[in-house]
Amino acid sequence: MGKKYLTNKELYIEIVYSKAKGRLTPEAQRMLYLLAKNVHRKFYYRNVEDKEDCLQGAMLDVLKFWYNYNEIKSNNAFAYYSEVIKRGHAKTWNKLLKHREDVSINQFFDTDGDLNF
Questions:
Q1: Comparing 32-46, 59-73, 83-97, 100-114, which segment has the lowest mean pLDDT?
Q2: How many CB atoms lie within 10 A of CB 75?
Q3: Alpha carbon distance 74, 97 (integer Å)
Q4: CA-CA distance, 85 to 91, in Å (whole number)?
Q5: Does the residue 95 lie in any domain?
Q6: Does residue 112 belong to any structural domain of this protein?
Q7: Percent of the chain with pLDDT over 90
Q8: Residue 1 domain-assigned?
Q9: CA-based angle 103:109:111, to the nearest 5?
């Protein structure tokens, strides 16, 4: 039988170990990526590029903020990193939407309705 998904206890232990070493272990990286992929599946994207961009944004935030997890305040590393991942997704998604609004069809027309090329 295959390995179960990921438990909070496993993630917690690996993060505490990583913090003691001062860097993310390869196993912690694998676990955080697995968590991000799982959270990532819960969102709908119209195209693959947006999906990949959002996953990358989430992972970037995880890598930036992984050390901020306070194991003294909470032993729920799973919830902490799930939230970091969700916020990273949202932040990237909002940037993608803003970019699309900046590149609207209206900028190709002048005030008379003629094309501007």
A1: 100-114
A2: 13
A3: 34
A4: 10
A5: yes
A6: no
A7: 62
A8: no
A9: 125
Among the listed residues 92, 85, 72, 93, the one whose alpha carbon sits nearest the alpha carbon of residue 32: 85
17-53 CB burial, b ≥16 within 10 A, e <16: ebbeeeebeeebbebbeebbeebbeeeeeeeeebbeb
Structural domain harbouring 43: 8-105
pLDDT in tens, 46-96: 788 888 999 999 999 999 999 999 999 999 999 999 999 999 999 998 888
In a domain, 56, yes or no: yes
For residue 76, the number of C-alpha atoms closer than 13 Å in the C-beta half-sphere is 5
60's tokens:
């970037």
The span from the CA of 55 to the CA of 85, in Å, is 8
**What is the residue whose two structure tokens read 């996953």?**
55
Taking the model in full, what pTM does it have?
0.78
Residue 45 near residue 51, CB atoms below 8 Å: yes
Average pLDDT for 88-115: 66
What total of structural domains would you count in the chain?
Answer: 1
- Whether 98 has a pLDDT exceeding 90, the answer reads no
